[in-house]
Amino acid sequence: MFRPMTPPITIAWTATGIRVLDQTRLPVDEVYLDLTTVEELAEAIRTLQVRGAPLIGVAAAMGVAAGAAEGQGGPNGLPDGRRGAVGLESIRKACAILRATRPTAVNLGWALDRMLARAERVVAAGEELQPALRAEAQAIWDEDQAMCERIGEAGLPLVPDGATILTHCNAGALATGGKGTALAPVYAAVERGRRVSVVADETRPLLQGSRLTAWELGRAGVPCTIIADSMAASRLSRGDITAVFVGADRIAANGDTANKIGTYGVALAARAHGVPFYVAAPRSTFDPSTPDGRRIPIEQRAPEELTRLGGTVTAPAGAKTWNPAFDVTPVSLITGFITDAGLLSPDRLSEWLRA
């Protein structure tokens, strides 16, 4: 039975920094990390303890605001909000460290740019830095929660009673500061009494689908079936999938979309079997400065993610690996975008980005 959606607590303020849910420990252990330096936060983002493009942006903003850096002039390594030039330099350093962690996720740079711009305005006005940055980070978090609600409402007409949605990776509550992006319409539909189930690709190599999507859906009482990534085409061929919903880490100006590796294959299979394929993302994930998918930087992950599984060696020593974290789905395979501004067809995207 569905339980009213109460998102897991993925992030929170503490007296000395921020607290985050360690997503690498799920689904076995629900462990929280108290982070007090920018290096700790950067490592948490780099190792996917904190993950999901919107949540990465929220975490980075909160980390900067909390002064989780080797700041100059303040106690416990925190920037001194009364010393404008010193504090601003510390904020710039924190932003640079965090920006380098995940090059594909555009929400990260968007949030850091917004925090730095606020810091520069505050210092120029001679105001206190820390309270203003905390307010800005809280606003980013609040906006992210509201964004999730609007995406859920925008996608609601796509989830009729009896729907089965296939998804890849995790773009739910664990990936945002609220209810999620790709899973938000699912939660919105179930909250209205509709019977909805989800088929979740396990999502190699870190199993974000089987570890995370299945965990949060089970927590909410939404039926979920896990399949291996290589099974997606066969499942789509059965004709029982209503639509595919995925999230995004960066959407280029033309609509080409970077998401977790394997998404492109799902989109090809969906097109082959006549299943609509939707990308759910907030405006902050759209990058007008990147003209198309060929210009999206794709992060390469460690070989061990492919050669080991749960500590067990799964490949011979010295085997070569190719381990991109993301692939790019061309806009020609995307039926539409579920956004916080409503449901958009690809041909309306340029008009929306100019608005």
Report how far apart the termini are: 42 Å
Find the count of extended strands (DSSP E, 2+ residues).
16
What are the secondary-structure elements, in order, as H or E? EEEHHHHHEHEHEHEEEHEEHEEEEEH
CATH architecture of the largest domain: 3-Layer(aba) Sandwich
CATH class of the largest domain: Alpha Beta
Number of domains: 2
Largest sheet: number of strands, sense, barrel closure: 7 strands, mixed
As a whole number of angstroms, the C-alpha radius of gyration is 20 Å
Helix content: 25-40%
Low-confidence residue ranges? 68-83
Structural class: alpha/beta
Quaternary structure state of the chains depicted: single chain
- How does the overall form come out from the CA principal axes? globular
Strand order in space, largest sheet:
6-5-4-7-10-15-16
- Mean pLDDT, nearest integer? 91
- The fraction of residues in strands falls at 15-25%
Fold topology:
Layout lengths: L10 E3 L4 E4 L10 E4 L2 H9 L6 H14 L17 H16 L6 H19 L4 H27 L7 E5 L16 H8 L4 E6 L6 H13 L3 E4 L4 H6 L5 E4 L3 E3 L4 E4 L2 H10 L4 E4 L5 E2 L16 H4 E2 L2 E2 L12 E4 L6 E4 L2 E3 L4 H6 L1
Parallel strand pairs: 4-5, 4-7, 5-6, 7-10, 8-11, 10-15
Antiparallel strand pairs: 1-2, 2-3, 8-9, 9-14, 12-13, 15-16
Helix pairs in contact: 1-2, 2-4, 2-5, 3-4, 4-5, 5-6
